[in-house]
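Design job #97: recover the sequence.
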């Protein structure tokens, strides 16, 4: 495979609860936008939104995808998500096990 690990992205997405995170995560995997989505329950988010500080429990979703699929993944999260402004943050992956990179790239091939 000629693709480099730098073509992978880890995407952080928060959701209000586990059922909502599972619904979104399953859609991303079913639609080939992510190879895998991990759900990390029990996080606490403190943030400012529309002039007020919020302090709420959330679920962190960690999606693994290709760089060239990020825009489609972001759009799909925005369509599915109950938040008006969902968190969708992509991080570049400078190093990764070659076999894992190949699997992610293959699973998310357009």
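Job complete. Output follows.
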């Amino acid at each position: 495979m000629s693709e480099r690990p730098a073509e992978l992205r880890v995407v952080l997405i928060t959701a209000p609860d586990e059922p909502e995170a599972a619904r979104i995560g399953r859609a991303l995997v079913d639609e080939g936008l992510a190879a895998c989505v991990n759900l990390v329950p029990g996080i606490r988010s403190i943030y400012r939104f529309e002039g007020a500080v919020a302090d709420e429990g959330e679920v962190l979703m960690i999606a693994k995808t290709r760089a060239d699929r990020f825009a489609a993944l972001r759009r799909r999260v925005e369509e599915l998500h109950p938040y008006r402004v969902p968190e969708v943050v992509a991080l570049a992956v400078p190093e990764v096990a070659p076999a894992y990179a190949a699997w992610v790239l293959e699973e998310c091939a357009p």
